[in-house]
Structure prediction request, 300 residues.
Amino acid sequence: MRSYKIKLRKNMAKQQNIRPENIKSDFFVDSTCIDCGTCYWMAPSIFKRVGNMSAVYKDPVTDLEFQKSAEALLSCPTNSIGTKSFNKKIAPISKNFPLKISDNVYHTGFHSEKSYGAASYFIQDDNENILIDSPRYLKKLANNFKNLGGIKYQILTHKDDIADTDRYQAEFKSNRYIHKGDIAEKTKHYEIQLTGNKEIILNKNTLIIPVPGHTKGSVVILYKNKFLFTGDHLAFSPKFKHLYGFKNHCWYDLKLLIKSVEKLLDYKFTWILPGHGHPFSGTYEEVRDSLIKCINYLKK
Ligand code: SF4
Prediction:
């Protein structure tokens, strides 16, 4: 715990770099922000985008606002969020991670700059726990995973959000799944390489669905016909108020991306948990309606 605190202090956001766009508050964002968007959805009442970077726009007053702000601070991939007082209540909040979303599904927090701040997720499922994409490696977080039963599988939605998966694999001896279309120098040693475009049954609760487009080997993961982990395939846009795909950041094939979003109409789910962008939840009908709006948006 001691070494963790020291490391955190060393990496803290710098007060000399405080953005003038922050309002007066103990919390601040400095000018190293990479606009990954994590704090926008983790603590939307405190942080927002101002001039292509994040800024504090409301002082956290309630305990819940403080907790959400601290969780965002700890999850920021570039340590761009700080407190002027070096608030001692922040480091102990690391014990909250992974953060429960719903049922036995968690957000890992501690985003990594190596994956441009993408979110990763943890499913606690009997003896078949799954890590989806990878947070930055922290011994403290690894211990928290251990206390929840360890990690049996790691599924990588695509080759860009792998962060510290090697370190988690070394610790938990988990089998990593990635699609062959996303095999590169940095992923070629992963244990299981998936092929084809048909869904793959991982276990009774979990399907891996190939969705080429954003990258050649992108996949999404459907858990219990309820949670869809989408990597960089699609996310929710508060601006459009519906799901959307990253047509301006499509690295492989936009037409294929659209087909892959259409393919998801064959499945049922009520949660969208993306790598980048905002999560979303609604009824089956609301999510389907939002998916159709996403397809129309991508075809424009
Ligand atoms: S989490 Fe950090 S890097 Fe990402 S938008 Fe917020 S301040 Fe910027």
User: Anything to note?
Assistant: The CA atoms of residues 77 and 113 lie 5 Å apart. The longest strand covers residues 175-179. The chain has two domains: 2-94, 97-299.
